[in-house]
Amino acid sequence: MHGAPLSIPSLEILRGRCVMGSLFGGVKPKQDIPILVDKYLNKELELDKFVTHEVALKDINTAFDLLLQGKSIRCTIWMDK
């Protein structure tokens, strides 16, 4: 839950463990997204395998249903269909 309290055993901190946070997994959009796009366009990053369904915008509820049923990993929603 966003903003929920976090409980951390103090002994773990004393033993040298640390707590770190990140936003978007530490991706720096201005720097990293162009690199990822180039890798995708050069077939080094195969993202198409992760798209399990494609639906038109008018069928967006179908995409949510598939997600909730655990039948979809990623769904592309086409705006022009």
UniProtKB/TrEMBL annotation:
<dbReference type="GO" id="GO:0051903">
    <property type="term" value="F:S-(hydroxymethyl)glutathione dehydrogenase [NAD(P)+] activity"/>
</dbReference>
<keyword id="KW-0479">Metal-binding</keyword>
<keyword id="KW-0862">Zinc</keyword>
<dbReference type="GO" id="GO:0005829">
    <property type="term" value="C:cytosol"/>
</dbReference>
<dbReference type="GO" id="GO:0004022">
    <property type="term" value="F:alcohol dehydrogenase (NAD+) activity"/>
</dbReference>
<dbReference type="GO" id="GO:0008270">
    <property type="term" value="F:zinc ion binding"/>
</dbReference>
<dbReference type="GO" id="GO:0046294">
    <property type="term" value="P:formaldehyde catabolic process"/>
</dbReference>
<protein>
    <recommendedName>
        <fullName>Alcohol dehydrogenase-like C-terminal domain-containing protein</fullName>
    </recommendedName>
</protein>
